[in-house]
């Protein structure tokens, strides 16, 4: 039971609100003193007076934290989740960088097994290997390839229904067919790390893609005569735009532009790598060496940005205090929007009856005070 909170959703803020959990679900909610009628049915009561309460944050693009990466297996995944749990993320889609298809298949199987026993893991995201070489960012160019039917089926089989999204550059041979096949298998396809122009991006969205991987990064920018994939995603109203709001990847005013151009369709993601919650230094992302200085990760060779050291509570604070996004819009970009992007709008992203018992308690400065996931205290 959490009572007397300022309950923030993606649409509004409700004062003096309460919610009651029953196991891993929200059993009831209300306002005022009605919570006292419910208190006999709960073991733990939290007075949230003067603080904000939101649904648990959902990160649909996360590679690592705490010195570990999700491709390191169960121990690495556990480390990654623990760091992000402490910052309000209660559900994560675990992201894999480009690797040989057979290795990716093994990593997908590991994530699938973890997801079966731990509700914090929503499944996997393949960020590669079907990417463009010029816009590859921190992906090994020697491992990039065009999609083919055999590789697509191998990856689908290995994931066993837990592949939540895959990033594809749609301009390459076989890409449109792969987009259609993944979409048919209920995998959310993202356009990203791509040289696609406006028309090609629109064609990919027409073919079934519904996400834009870290908008503005790893793609052509907006030009007044060549609007590119970001404007195509804004135009296609079924598409969610990922934004890495760390103050490095996207300027605050451009973040505001994205929220204005795609209202209700921006998902704040971390794209976090192993250095998140850890020290500056040298790390490995996939097969590439990364140097982290002052919290900014860049490839040793070439200097490309290589993921982030962002957590979602920091993304929230930056959205509100630096970008001028309203609190309920920013919270929506961490909850209802990412839930909808991966097809989980019916049970994640809101503190409503029947939804997952995932919640974050925040102070007036939007710093995390407590976190619950599936009804269990996580931080």
UniProtKB/TrEMBL annotation:
The UniProt entry, under InterPro entries, shows: Amidohydro-rel, GlcNAc_6-P_deAcase, Metal-dep_hydrolase_composite, Metal_Hydrolase
Biological process, per Gene Ontology = N-acetylglucosamine catabolic process
Which cofactor is essential here?
Answer: a divalent metal cation
Transmembrane region(s)? none
> Where in the numbering of this chain does the Amidohydrolase-related domain appear?
52-364
Q: Which SUPFAM superfamilies match?
A: Composite domain of metallo-dependent hydrolases (SSF51338), Metallo-dependent hydrolases (SSF51556)
Note on how the cofactor is bound: Binds 1 divalent metal cation per subunit.
What residue range is the signal peptide?
Answer: none
What are the UniProt keywords, alphabetically? Answer: Carbohydrate metabolism, Hydrolase, Metal-binding
The record lists substrate as bound by 138, 217-218, 225, 249, 305-307
Coiled-coil annotation reads none
Gene Ontology terms for molecular function: metal ion binding; N-acetylglucosamine-6-phosphate deacetylase activity
User: Which parts of the sequence bind Zn(2+)?
Assistant: 127, 193, 214
Q: Which residues form the active site?
A: 271
Q: What family does the Swiss-Prot or TrEMBL record give for this protein?
A: Belongs to the metallo-dependent hydrolases superfamily. NagA family.
Q: Which PANTHER family match?
A: N-ACETYLGLUCOSAMINE-6-PHOSPHATE DEACETYLASE (PTHR11113:SF14)
**Name used for this protein in its record:** N-acetylglucosamine-6-phosphate deacetylase
Q: Gene encoding this chain?
A: nagA
